[in-house]
Amino acid sequence: MLTTAATSASTSSDPNGAPGSSYRGYKVLMEKYDGLTNYIPSNMDDPIVLNVGGKRFETYEETLARFPDTLLGSKSRRSKFYNSRRQEYFFDRHRSAFDAILYYYQSGGTLIRPEHVPPHVFINEVVFYDLPEEAVQVVQLEAGIADEPEEQPMPSNYYMGIIWNALEYPNSSKVAKFLAIFSVLVITLSLIIFCVETLPTFKVPNQDRPPNATNEWKPPPNPYDAVWFQLNTFVIVWFTGEYVIRFICSPQKLKFLLGALNLIDLLSILPYYVQLGLKEDDSSISVLRVVRVVRVFRVFKLSRHSRGLQILGNTLKASLNELIMLMFFLAIGVMIFASCVYYAEGGPESDGFQSIPHAFWWAVVTMTTVGYGDVSPVSLPGKIVGALCAISGVLTIALPVPVIVSNFENFYNKEMNRRKEEELKKAEEAREKGEAKKSGLNSRKQSMELENMDGKTPKSPKDVVVCSVNNKDENSTDKTHPTRRSVETV
User: Which intervals of the chain are annotated as region Disordered (predicted)?
Assistant: First the structure.
C-alpha cells in the first residue's frame, strides 16, 4: 500500500553500499508518484476539452485514440498538459493551425493546411503534435519545401558512389560543397574569358601583305592568343574531367547522356576540341565563328548550382503551353498586319515594304512595342494599320503574361518556404546542441555532488513530502507500531 515514511540511511541505503543510491531511489520514487498524480482515468465516450492559446476545443477520447502514437492520442503523453483546476488540457500553441490538427483526427488522417497559416509555422505545429511522418511530407510537398521523392539509383561500387554523390549532390558533404563552389568559379572564369577576349584592346590590327612577300607569308600572331588558349585549356580540362568522371560513375549511362544539363555540359566542351581540329583559313572561318558562339552555352552550366536559374527554368517549363499560345498569336498578327501594310503602302512600288516577307520585321517590332523606326509607313492607310498593329500587339502579349507571372510567383514562394524551413532547422539544431551541452554540465555537476556524499542520505527538498511504498510495514510484527506511518517535512 502507499504510505509516507521517514527516510533513513539504514532502510533506504543500497545493500552494496554504493554512495548516493538513496538519492537515486528517492528520485525514482518521486517520478512514480508524479505519474500517479497525473494519471487521469477517462472513458472513450467522455468529452475532452483542449485549450489552445486561449481557444477551447471539445472532442471525444475515441476521436483522439484513432492515432495513439501522436501527442494527443496518447493519454500518458498529453497528461502533463492537463490543468486539474480548469479540467482541461492547455497548449500554448498556434490557435489557427490547431483547427487543421483536430480535423486530422476527426477525418481519420486528412491534413489540410489553412491558407492564412504560413507553411513553416504549420509544419512546426505538426511536428509538435507528433503527427505521422507521412502527414509532414504531404504538407512539405504542397508548400514546395520538399520535392517529390524520386528514385535516385546509386552506383554498385562503393567508391564510385562516394564520387557520384560528391559531384552530383552538392549538399551531401563538405567536399561536395567545395567542389560545387570551385566549379562555379571555373564557369565564371570561362564566361569572363569569353567576353574579354573580344575587346579591341586585345586585338592586333590587320596588316596588309607586303608587295615583296612570298606565298608563305602570314600576319604576325596575336600575343594574347597564347594567354587565352592557356586559360581556356585549364577551363576545358576541368569541364572534361568532371563530365567524364560523372559519366563513368553514373548508374544509368543512357539517362545521363540524354539529361538536359548534361547536354549543356557537352555543348560547352565540344567547341574547344572542334576548334583544335580546324585551321583558320577562308574555308573554315565561318565554322569557327559558329563554334565560338556555341561557347556561350557555358552560362547555362550555372543552373546546376543556382536556385534562381532553376526557378526560371521551372517557370518556363510550367508555362510552355502559354508561351506556345503567345507565339501562335504573335505569328497570326505578324502575318495579318504585314500583308495589310504592304498593300496600304502601295505594294511593289513601295520603298520600305518591297514584299510581305520584308514587312514581317516591321510587324514584329511594332507588335512587341519595340519600334526601331528603320522601316515605317508613310501614307495615311499605312499609319492606321501601324496603329492597329501596335494596339493589338499590346493585347496579344498581355493576355498570357499573368499566367507566366503566377507560375513564377508560385515557384518563388516555394523557394522562400524552403529557405525558411532550412533556417528553422538550423536554429532547432543549435538549440538542441545548447540544451544537450547544458544538460551535460548539469549531469556532471550532479554526479560530482553524488560522489561527494559518501553514501550519506541527502536532505529532502524543502516542503516536500517523502513518499514510499513500505511492504515491510504491512507484515510487521511489532506490537507497539503495527503499521508505521510518519511524515517528515523539512
Answer: 423-490
